[in-house]
Give the backbone structure.
Amino acid sequence: MTVDIEKTGPGDTPPPAAPETIKAVPVRHYGRWISAVVIVALLGMLVYAFSQGKVNWGAIPDNFFNDQVLEGVGKTIWITIAAMALGVVLGIILAVMRLSKNPVTQAVAWGYIWFFRGTPVYVQLLLWFNLGLIFKYINLGPIYQDEWSDFMTPFLAALLGLGLNEAAYMAEICRAGLQSVDEGQTEAAHALGMSHTKTLRRVVLPQAMRVIVPPTGNEFINMLKTTSLVIAVQYWDLLQAAQNIGQNSGAPAEMLFLAAAWYLILTSVLSVGQYYLERYYARGSSRALPPTVLQRVRTNLLSFSNRSREGGGA
């Protein structure tokens, strides 16, 4: 094999030199390591502090499925669903009133939202519960008549205090969702002969749900936690059950840990439900839906298995 080497004369330019190999040096993120060490140290200090405290950890599993606790969990779920249903229904009505061209309905809806968003829910609960000091009887004519103390039960006070307050927030969420739909959709539906109600139900709401569902899920989770305030109106819930058991067993702090664990379980279940609900309503706007938790786990396991095989083959 022969190689021809070109000879360069004195007037010829030499060939360009080969570029040097670039050595890529990864950037060292010292701040990440320092922050990780600090966080781990703080967590270790927190765990050590609780290990040194006089905490009866055995009281938590012993009472985790106590009859009173389970009854409190059931009533907490029930008041959450009932108050949220009232808030959603009334919120939709208020949102439609806000978007109405009637100035009276607009003013009434605005005043409702202004009042219930501007006062704490704890104060509203106490107001409903103590209205018996002002009104001795409730008289709705031929529909209903009774003493206020018999009418305003702890459950009704909790339902009105939570549900009416939630309606103010749901009204703004629904209004934002309805306004997110392009007006051309409504005009096209009316041009096809659809009524206003049918247009709202068949065209506007399905598209607005993508905007309404995520904050509604957050409101549902927040409602579950806010039910702990119903202890002010003597309604039996999870917190009330935990405090009663703590007073009788001499472990009040441990029973608060138990209540916190149950709240975490319930909110985690609601978070999973919210994720799948958002994924369902994202079908019309996303070509590729976000993977579910099981799909992510399956993908990670397959990639790990493939890497192990490649490593073993090498």
About this structure: The radius of gyration is 31 Å.
